[in-house]
Specification:
Layout: H1 11-15, E1 18-22, E2 25-29, H2 37-40, E3 92-94, E4 104-106, H3 107-124, E5 127-132, H4 137-159, E6 173-179, H5 193-201, E7 207-209, H6 216-219, E8 227-230, H7 233-242, H8 247-251
Antiparallel strand pairs: 1-2, 3-4, 5-6, 6-8, 7-8
Length: about 260
């Protein structure tokens, strides 16, 4: 049997509201109350593309040779004389290592020589000495004249720099010899324990072999396995990594086998 149900509340209330439930909650349809933002809002994905990481490494700047005689990057050769010609370093000090001729170098180069000599002796039990280091313009006049007298001008130019063109005048170059003396200022120095150790380790202390075997067409000088030039530890490491055989090649300079006319 069907029964009629009467509401005691007003019809509007009886009609009430149809309750609509969503995933995030319920809202009374027709109630005039808008659903809360939390029940309907969804995060909008970012449309800004994520930048791709660069796959191309930056190319480091090429090393630059300096014309400043006080720079560790100065290059002195037959086409690049010192300027001024009578330049003398301001920070020369006596190098406290064994020597054949009392050595003076710039302070930083001197410190590096001391560390290098100490390491050689600690690792091998042997000794080496400074044969020649800083030479003034006037000293180079005498040295070069002596070579001309013994070898003639052409022969001297393969062995010794003309005054004003010598690396020794920068206070950054040193000639090393064995102690006791063996193959001093001769190509056979390369085969001594001192020469072999220097070839393998000098760059660790900021030195590079300035006049390598086979480098005469570039440097203008014969092989001098005893002549090392201080350029600084970072530059020496980069020099070795570059595979360059001479400072001219490392700095992208023209070969300097002869003096300018």
């Amino acid at each position: 049997m069907w029964h009629t149900v009467r509401f005691r509340t007003p019809v509007v209330a009886a009609l009430a509201l149809v309750v609509v439930c969503g995933v995030a909650g319920c809202a009374a349809e027709g109630s005039g109350v808008a659903p809360t933002a939390s029940s309907t809002a969804h995060p909008t994905p970012s449309t800004t593309p994520t930048p791709e990481p660069s796959l191309t490494p930056e190319t480091p700047p090429a090393p630059v040779a300096s014309d400043d005689p006080s720079s560790l990057s100065v290059v002195v050769n037959k086409l690049r004389p010192l300027n001024p010609g009578n330049y003398a370093p301001a920070d020369l000090v006596e190098v406290p290592v064994p020597y054949a001729n009392k050595p003076f170098l710039r302070q930083e180069a001197s410190n590096a020589v001391v560390a290098m000599f100490q390491a050689f002796t600690a690792q091998t039990g042997l000794s080496m000495q400074a044969q020649s280091a800083y030479r003034s313009y006037d000293s180079q006049v005498s040295v070069y004249a002596g070579w001309v007298a013994s070898k003639g001008k052409a022969g001297a130019d393969l062995t010794s720099a003309r005054p004003g063109h010598s690396e020794h005048q920068t206070g950054l170059a040193i000639d090393v010899s064995a102690l006791p003396a063996q193959c001093t200022l001769q190509g056979c120095f390369a085969d001594t324990p001192q020469g072999q150790w220097l070839a393998a380790n000098a760059a660790t202390y900021g030195f590079v072999l300035r006049y390598p075997d086979g480098g005469t067409p570039v440097t203008g000088y014969e092989f001098e396995p005893w002549h090392y030039r201080y350029v600084g530890i970072a530059t020496a490491a980069d020099y070795v990594a570059s595979g360059a055989a001479t400072l001219e090649q490392y700095f992208g300079l023209p070969a300097a086998p002869d003096y300018a006319p």
